[in-house]
């Protein structure tokens, strides 16, 4: 081995060792971020979730009896007119003519009967508030599902980074062993060079794993509503799986699924819209009253000192006889909209039942895959130790050792992937059954 190669690989080992050591020391100095912590932070700081909650507040503000027309309408009015000019008088010639009039008043109008339109409008506002609340939960659940994906992608990347460090360490030991055997004449130059090539490849794998880890950490920070550069350490402990039962999940899905509840609320709103439109077939009765003050003067006078007052009051009965069939068309369309929303409820029910069945199958398959990958890793670890021992004794080739090494690293990576996929399948079941988040 030339002096140049020795120096090059020495620098490579030093830089990679420093990278791994610095990473470990930095990570140990930071608090762990569990999935539950990430959910809590997202619920508090995620910008999209804040927008969803503001939309619900708007619907909450709209649920007022004044918006439904239960309160009377009170208007105040006032006017001022001033005129000045000349008139031609046959006896006296031109005479100046000046006059001023002032009036002010207050009027009240109250609907006594409108075919129960105001009652149904208030009911509609209450249902729109309920719809906004369910929509908020639906949107938050989608954000948390994306958060779970980002979190477990980061967990996988962090695990793969650790696995890459393990692979690099194994290759470093192999290079040192190959060099020692070559110096004692027990191995060939080719074996040393092959070990160095494999070490170089493992170093690139480590660098790429670190890059992926950093990128996914930045991505998760955005879900937490903070700068992408905020540093943290992800917890490497996967929480235990919940005890989920198929029948119980189905019952909870029918009762709590946000998408299904949205369709039911929308159907209620459409039925109330139809009642509101049908109220136009009934007569409308309004009560109105008011008091007005008027003053007229022959000259400009800013003092309102001698007004005359007038009180008025009465009832107004109105009934739409013909409006070009506009109301009739609106009533027809309202009936069609109710039918459409009834179909949407039925379609949504079919969809969530399908989604639940598919999600349950994926969940069960992923749990089985997780069990298999755990067994595979146990077998692969035993196989690697045996291959390593025989390789050190010179009974196996470097190719055999490298294959066993790659199989070990792949088995570790497959187990991590299986863990992440199983947790994401669990999150999907919780989302479908309305258990992922409850909007207070």
TrEMBL record:
Localization per Swiss-Prot or TrEMBL: Cell outer membrane
Keyword Transmembrane tagged: yes
Signal peptide bounds: 1-22
Primary localization: membrane
Molecular-function GO term, any one: porin activity
Keywords in alphabetical order: Cell outer membrane, Membrane, Signal, Transmembrane, Transmembrane beta strand, Transport
Matches recorded under Pfam families: OEP
Cellular component annotations (GO), alphabetically ordered: cell outer membrane; efflux pump complex
UniProt cross-references to InterPro entries, sorted A to Z: OMP_efflux, TolC-like
Family per similarity comment: Belongs to the outer membrane factor (OMF) (TC 1.B.17) family.
Annotated protein name in UniProt: Membrane protein
Native source species: Fulvitalea axinellae
């Amino acid at each position: 081995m030339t002096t140049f190669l020795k120096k090059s690989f020495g620098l490579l080992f030093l830089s990679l060792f420093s990278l791994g050591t610095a990473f470990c020391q930095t990570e140990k100095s930071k608090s762990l971020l569990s999935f539950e912590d990430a959910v809590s932070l997202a619920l508090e700081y995620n910008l999209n979730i804040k927008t969803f909650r503001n939309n619900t507040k708007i619907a909450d503000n709209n649920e007022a009896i004044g918006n439904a027309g239960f309160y009377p309408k009170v208007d105040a009015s006032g006017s001022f007119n001033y005129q000045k000019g000349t008139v031609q008088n046959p006896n006296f010639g031109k005479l100046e003519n000046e006059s001023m009039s002032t009036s002010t008043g207050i009027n009240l109008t109250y609907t006594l009967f409108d075919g129960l339109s105001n009652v149904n409008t208030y009911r509609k506002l209450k249902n729109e508030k309920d719809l906004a609340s369910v929509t908020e939960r639906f949107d938050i659940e989608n954000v948390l599902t994306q958060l779970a994906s980002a979190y477990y992608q980061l967990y996988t990347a962090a695990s793969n980074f650790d696995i890459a460090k393990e692979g690099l360490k194994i290759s470093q030991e192999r290079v040192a062993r190959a060099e020692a055997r070559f110096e004692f004449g027990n191995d060939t130059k080719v074996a040393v060079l092959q070990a160095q090539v494999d070490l170089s490849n493992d170093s690139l794998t480590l660098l790429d794993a670190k890059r992926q880890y950093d990128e996914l950490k930045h991505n998760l920070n955005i879900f937490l509503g903070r700068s992408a550069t905020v540093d943290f350490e992800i917890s490497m402990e996967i929480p235990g799986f919940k005890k989920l039962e198929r029948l119980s999940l189905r019952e909870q899905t029918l009762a709590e699924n946000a998408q299904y509840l949205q369709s039911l609320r929308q159907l209620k709103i459409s039925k109330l819209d139809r009642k509101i439109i049908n109220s136009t077939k009934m007569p409308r009765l309004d009560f109105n009253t008011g008091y007005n003050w008027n003053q007229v003067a022959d000259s400009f006078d800013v003092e309102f000192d001698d007004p005359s007052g007038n009180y008025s009051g009465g009832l107004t009965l109105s009934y739409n006889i013909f409006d070009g069939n506009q109301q009739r068309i609106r009533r027809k369309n309202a009936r069609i909209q109710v039918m459409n929303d009834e179909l949407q409820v039925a379609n949504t029910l079919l969809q969530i039942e399908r989604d639940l069945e598919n999600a349950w199958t994926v969940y069960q398959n992923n749990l089985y895959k997780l069990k298999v990958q755990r067994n595979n890793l146990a077998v692969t670890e035993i196989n690697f130790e045996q291959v390593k021992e025989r390789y050190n004794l010179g009974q196996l080739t470097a190719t055999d050792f490298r294959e066993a090494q790659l199989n070990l690293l792949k088995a570790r990576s497959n187990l991590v992937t299986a863990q992440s996929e199983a947790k994401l399948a669990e999150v999907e079941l919780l989302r479908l059954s309305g258990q992922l988040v409850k909007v207070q």
